[in-house]
Amino acid sequence: MRRILASSLLGSAIEFYDFLLYASTSALVFAHAFFASLDAMCSRSRRRSSFSARSSR
Q1: 49 burial class (0-12, 13-18, 19+ CB within 10 angstroms)?
Q2: Is the CB of residue 35 less than 8 Å from the CB of residue 47?
């Protein structure tokens, strides 16, 4: 039972870290790297769309 609990905790921690890393990257990098030619509002909406597409998996 302890092994199952430890594996579950480790898997959840890795998944949370992945989610946190992607959220930070989408907020700080994606708008500038991928949507630089767009205005600020359009860039923000596309960045949020890419983040929501990632987190809905």
Answers
A1: exposed
A2: yes
State the amino acid at position 1 in one-letter form. M
What gap in Å lies between CA 34 and CA 27, rounded to an integer? Answer: 12
Polymer length in residues for the chain:
57
Per-residue pLDDT of the chain (57 residues; tens, 9 = 90+): 999 999 999 999 999 998 888 888 877 787 777 777 777 778 777 777 776 766 555
CB distance 51 to 26 below 8 Å? yes
Give pTM, 2 decimals.
0.57
Nearest to 43 by CA among 53, 34, 54: 34
